[in-house]
Design goal:
eight-stranded parallel beta barrel, about 290 residues, TIM Barrel, about 45% helix
Length: about 290
């Protein structure tokens, strides 16, 4: 199956108006800002997009809008996951995949399935999915880690399972996946701050949060890493690192939305149960971004 998820993907935010409605004008600004920053692909309806708070109609509207805005300039990946396997299968069977390059599917959350359950979940979903799938392991949010063994088994047995977004933070686990994976299987960083070291170990790129705000510099850093130019990449990495750390200090995507407002790209509005970062973090972000721009 055709795919190229090397480089920088962006986990797009979903901007809202103050009244809670989706702010499509700001979403267009974010899409244009990231594409102008030379990102490689866009990811709609990820965790950063506050997808659990969107209705089904809103999800469809966001996907259609992002595809329209991207206009074929970069691939668009859509988040399709959950903790009800049959529900995901039913959704995939009724989805239109026109303009969708692949799906990002989070490992089942809350239920805390065994590895056997995670394996059969993905195996079953992949059997009905008509586009490439990126597995998404984020145990800090799902409550259950997907082991290296499970990831590698799926990578070997499912032709359309082409990559994993690894956000476990377990470098030993990620190295084991890189060491044993099939040649055409990609390992994607799910943590902005450790993207550089993971690429140095053999990862293929990142699905980034900070690239919503700083796509040009972050993409440049990733591309330098992929070319083996780590001394140059280090300069950008360490310049961005305090901002990357700060945007996750008081919850995500609250931090990146605060940054986007400071940069005058999108208003800082979220849907409950998420709320804005506290005043101290917001002030610190203002200071860090001002220093970064000087």
């Amino acid at each position: 199956m055709k795919f190229n998820f090397t480089g920088t993907g962006v986990a797009l935010v979903t901007p809202f108006h103050k009244n809670g409605n989706i702010d499509f004008c700001s979403l267009e600004k974010v899409v244009e800002h990231t594409i102008a920053g030379n990102v490689n692909y866009l990811v709609a309806l990820g965790t950063t997009g506050e997808t659990p708070t969107l209705s089904n109609d809103e999800k469809l509207a966001v996907v259609d809008f992002v595809i329209e805005c991207a206009a074929g300039r970069v691939p668009v990946v859509v988040g399709v996951g959950g903790n009800n396997t049959q529900e995901i299968i039913d959704k995939i069977k009724t989805m239109s995949f026109e303009g969708i390059a692949g799906i990002l599917s989070v490992s089942p959350y809350y239920n805390k399935p065994q590895q056997k359950g995670i394996y059969y979940h993905y195996k079953t979903v992949s059997s009905v999915c008509p586009v490439p799938m990126i597995l998404y392991n984020v145990p800090g949010r799902t409550g259950a880690n997907m082991s290296a063994e499970t990831t590698l088994q799926l990578a070997s047995e499912c032709d359309n399972v082409v990559a994993v977004k690894e956000a476990s933070g377990n470098v030993n686990q990620i190295m084991e996946i890189i060491r044993c994976k099939p040649d055409n299987f990609h390992v994607i960083s799910g943590d902005d701050a450790i993207t550089l070291p993971l690429i140095s170990l053999g990862a293929n790129g990142v699905i980034s949060v900070v690239a919503n705000a700083f796509p040009s510099d972050f993409s440049k850093m990733v591309n330098l890493c992929l070319k083996g130019k780590f001394a140059e990449a280090n300069v950008i990495h360490y310049k961005l690192l305090p901002i990357m750390q700060k945007i996750f200090e008081d919850g995500s995507p609250a931090g990146i939305k605060a940054a986007l407002q400071i940069l005058e790209i999108a208003a800082n509005n979220l849907r409950l149960p998420l709320v804005k970062v506290n005043k101290a973090v917001n002030l610190q972000l203002q200071q860090l971004i001002a220093e970064y721009q000087n």
